[in-house]
Amino acid sequence: MRGALQNSWVGKVIVSNSNPQYRLADWVPVRDPRLVLLERDQKPPAGRRFVLAAAEPGDYFLSVDDDIFFTPAQWTKFFESLVQDPEAPHGISGQLYRPGVQFLNGTAFHHRENIETEVDVLIGAYAFTRRHLERLVQLAEALHLGGLSQVANGEDILLSFSGTRPARIHDFGHPFLCASTSLKGVALWNTRENFWEERVKLFEEVQAARRAMDRPENAAACPANGSPG
Question: Domains of the chain, with CATH numbers?
Answer without folding.
Answer: 44-219 (3.90.550.10)
